[in-house]
Structures are given as C-alpha cells and as structure tokens.
Write the structure tokens for this entry.
Amino acid sequence: MHREGQHLPHEELREKNIRLVIENALDSFLENGIEKTKVADVARRSGLTERSVFRYFETKADLVLAASLLYWNRILALIDRMSHENSDGGTTGLEDAANVLVCYSMLYHLDPKGMRFTLDAELTLQAAGRLHEIKNQPPEPFETSRGPMAKAIRKGLADGSISPEVDVKEIYYNSYDAILGIMQRLSIGGSPSARELDYDSRMLHLSEMFVKALSGK
C-alpha cells in the first residue's frame, strides 16, 4: 500500500510534509499545550517518524515558531475578514480602526485556547532567544505592516478622520499590546479583574479610549 504523496517530486513532498507538520503541531499545542506536546506526538499525528520531523525542524522551538507564524497568519486574516463584514464600505479610517479593535478583542471569546497558546509560545521562544522571530504577531512594525489596524490608520490619515497631530505609531502599538495582554492574562485565569469586571464592557471602553486618542479629541 502506497502512502499518499509517495510519488510526488522530492521538493514538493518535502514542502507538503512541512506544512502538514506545522498544522498538526499547532493543533496539538492548542489542544494539549506546548509543554505537554512532544515532537513524537506531532510526528504520529502527521504520519511521519520523529526523525523525519527533526529533519525539517531542528528543535521544538523551531516548531513552536512555525506554529506561531501560522496561527497569527490565520488570526490576522480572520480579523480582516470580520472587520470587512462589519463595514458597509463607506466608513472612515477612524471607524475602521474602531471596528478592528472590537474584532481583535473578540478573540478571547472566539479562541481562548489560542490566546493561551500565544502566551506560552512567547515564553518558550523568549527562553530560546527567538521571540523577535514572530514577525507577524500584532503589533507588527507599523511602517511595514499590512495588517488591518495599520491599514485603517493610514486610511484615516488620508481621509482626515485621524488627526495628523497625534502619535499614531504609539497608539497603534499600545492598543494591540494592551488588548492582547489582557486576553493572554485572562487565558491563564486567576486575575481579579476577570472576576470583578465585565470583559465585553471593559474591551469596549478600552477600544473607545484608543479611538478617541486617534481622533485627537
């Protein structure tokens, strides 16, 4: 019995296997956590030997990095899609920014395990000295970002809804860092704010603060 992909050209098969391993690694990390997931588990899930996986990824940290990049690619695409679905097409850049922040803050409800994964991945990669390699995790560098928040800010500067007098870069970074930080903290539980404050109300208030700052009012 032949395995699927056995007759593919070597390089094509290699790329197919790498994608398969990354996808299965991410699924395993989300389900069981990074610490409890062994490379052997990912290999079995992918229908490969552990040795084969280590040919593609020299260390577990390499696998965590690849899974993180895949996760954030999916999340950015999701936020972009959600923000477009909630827009009528005639919105200003400031309104788009408000919409993006609300959609971003919904990730805690949509994917709490994902928020925990992002925190664990940061800690794992920080220990390996490789945290800086998650190039697509919000906030991406503002000048080169193609993410939805950066696009909304540029649109707002062009249409006049966002003030050119404010430090948009600082607000961009602070908004993403603040919202992600809260979602990550809540994902591990035990925060007094999680028990005392309503999450949706808190995030709406936080988003409104950043939108007001962008407007310069």
